[in-house]
């Protein structure tokens, strides 16, 4: 539901323009009369604001619509190519950058493995990732064939605790050397456009609510699985951050006493028993045993290694072997899914969401893990909500980053005032009230 705030004339005009632009953006096309009717605004107010939006290129007049009696109305359509935004994901193993229009259509997408560190840096240190990130941003702009002035902003999803108010990474377990790294300041200096940097799962759940399996859902949980385990939460239409911006750090959730003993000093208790790196470690350890020589042949064959001499095992090889019915791989995956079902059941019991989405790297192997997790949750809870697989994968982080980049550049284009993660809409409401 749209808000109907009151305030001084300037702020009322800004809010009316925001609501009109939001409505036009939601609809494929709409007339001035229908805008006035739906928003309960006067026709002259709507006509004046729409004319301004047309002159600025935000919307287009696309011709006459059907008449219900009298003159045919001119239809208005949002122009999503007025500007473009860039969304980036800095993950534990990959960096992904996409360029999208204002409707979230991704035109160009490029990725790279996390680079080795520079001189004196740990692998994937700040300078190395910074250079790769800048190169990928420049590449997508070039390949999209647009001038840089068409880019209205950049959003960055970082797999670590990040302060959205200043764009600084506070703590990043999977990005050595990134603690207190000012990613926003670095990119704003380089590209000269507004930059928003935030935690990856906060942006991923925002992306799912905008263009994914959580569209239209006001109480939503996204569990992302990969090298790390994370959780994005939307409560009553707003991204929930907690008191210090660390809500959803379920990699530290405790579902096994053995995990606490294993990771007591460094944390990450759930990740220690359910992360992809642990899955690979368990597979490698199993292959070294006498029983594993035969049992792990399926994994070894898919990974292209010899179990006798060892080699690199990938999560993808384990999941593919499980998909093909390899018993050793299935046991490994089922063990991980058991702990994940405990985790999801705990989250459901605490938050009572409408929907739980499984995303991250897990979206690529969903047919192997979704069933075991869902069945595990059903065995633990009486009537759990639907557990769905993300159809966006890592595009969830990209689209969430695009959404906040667009909002930073133009608050009128926030997904909605209620969904705003930057809070521009709320600030306008508060200011209007204080000046009333």
Account of the 3D structure:
The protein has 436 residues and is α/β, with parallel strands linked by helices. It has three domains: 9-79, Orthogonal Bundle (Arc Repressor Mutant, subunit A); 84-210 and 395-413, Nucleotidyltransferase, domain 5 (2-Layer Sandwich), CATH 3.30.420.40; 214-389, ATPase, nucleotide binding domain (Nucleotidyltransferase, domain 5), CATH 3.30.420. The chain has helices at 9-26, 32-39, 43-55, 126-144, 183-191, 200-211, 257-263, 271-274, 276-287, 290-295, 297-303, 315-323, 327-351, 366-380, 395-409, 424-434; strands spanning 30-31, 59-64, 74-78, 84-90, 94-101, 106-113, 151-158, 161-163, 168-171, 195-199, 220-225, 229-235, 238-239, 355-360, 387-389. The protein has a five-stranded mixed β-sheet. A five-stranded mixed β-sheet has the order 13-12-11-14-15, with helices on both faces. A hairpin with a 3-residue loop joins strand 4 and strand 5 (94-101). Helix 1 packs across helix 3, helix 2 crosses helix 3 and helix 13 packs across helix 14. The longest helix is centred in the C-terminal third of the chain and has 25 residues, at 327-351. It is globular, with a radius of gyration of 24 Å.
Helices, strands, pairings?
Blueprint: H1 9-26, E1 30-31, H2 32-39, H3 43-55, E2 59-64, E3 74-78, E4 84-90, E5 94-101, E6 106-113, H4 126-144, E7 151-158, E8 161-163, E9 168-171, H5 183-191, E10 195-199, H6 200-211, E11 220-225, E12 229-235, E13 238-239, H7 257-263, H8 271-274, H9 276-287, H10 290-295, H11 297-303, H12 315-323, H13 327-351, E14 355-360, H14 366-380, E15 387-389, H15 395-409, H16 424-434
Parallel strand pairs: 4-7, 7-10, 11-14, 14-15
Antiparallel strand pairs: 1-3, 2-3, 4-5, 5-6, 8-9, 11-12, 12-13
Helix pairs in contact: 1-3, 2-3, 6-15, 11-12, 12-13, 13-14
């Amino acid at each position: 539901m749209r808000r109907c705030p009151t305030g001084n004339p300037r702020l009322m005009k800004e809010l009316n323009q925001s609501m009109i632009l939001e409505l036009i953006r939601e609809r494929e096309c709409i007339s001035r009369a229908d805008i006035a009717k739906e928003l309960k605004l006067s026709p002259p107010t709507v006509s004046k604001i729409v004319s301004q939006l047309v002159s600025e290129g935000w919307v287009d007049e696309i011709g006459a619509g059907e008449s219900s009696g009298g003159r045919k109305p001119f239809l208005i359509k949002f122009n999503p190519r007025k500007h473009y935004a860039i969304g980036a994901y800095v993950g534990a193993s990959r960096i992904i950058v996409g360029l999208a229009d204002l409707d979230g259509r991704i035109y160009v997408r490029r990725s790279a493995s996390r680079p080795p560190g520079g001189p004196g840096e740990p692998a994937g240190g700040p300078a190395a990732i910074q250079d790769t990130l800048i190169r990928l941003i420049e590449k997508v702009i070039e390949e999209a064939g647009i001038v840089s002035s068409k880019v209205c902003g950049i959003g960055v999803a970082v797999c670590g605790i990040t302060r959205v108010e200043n764009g600084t990474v506070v703590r990043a377990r999977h990005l050595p050397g990134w603690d207190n790294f000012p990613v926003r300041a670095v990119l704003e200096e380089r590209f000269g456009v507004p930059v928003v940097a935030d935690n990856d799962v906060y942006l991923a759940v925002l992306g799912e609510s905008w263009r994914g399996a959580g569209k239209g859902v006001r109480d939503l949980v996204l569990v992302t699985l990969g090298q790390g385990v994370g959780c994005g939460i939307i409560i009553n239409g707003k991204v929930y951050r907690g008191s210090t911006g660390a809500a959803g750090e379920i990699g530290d959730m405790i579902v096994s006493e053995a995990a606490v003993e294993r990771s007591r000093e460094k944390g990450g208790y759930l990740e220690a028993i359910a992360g992809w790196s642990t899955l690979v470690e368990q597979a490698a350890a199993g292959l070294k045993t006498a029983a594993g020589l035969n049992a792990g042949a399926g994994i070894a064959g898919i990974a292209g290694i010899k179990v006798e001499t060892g080699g690199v095992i990938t999560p993808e090889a384990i999941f593919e072997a499980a998909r093909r019915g390899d018993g050793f791989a299935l046991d490994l995956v089922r063990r991980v899914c058991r702990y994940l079902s405990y985790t999801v059941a705990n989250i459901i019991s605490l938050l009572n969401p409408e929907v739980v989405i499984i995303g991250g790297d897990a979206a690529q192997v969903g047919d192997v893990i979704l069933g075991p997790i869902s069945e595990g949750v059903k065995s633990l809870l009486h009537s759990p909500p639907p557990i769905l697989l993300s159809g966006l994968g890592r595009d969830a982080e990209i689209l969430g980053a695009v959404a906040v980049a667009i909002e930073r550049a133009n608050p009128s284009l926030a997904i909605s005032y209620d969904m705003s993660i930057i809070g521009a809409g709320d600030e306008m409401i508060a200011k209007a009230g204080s000046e009333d």
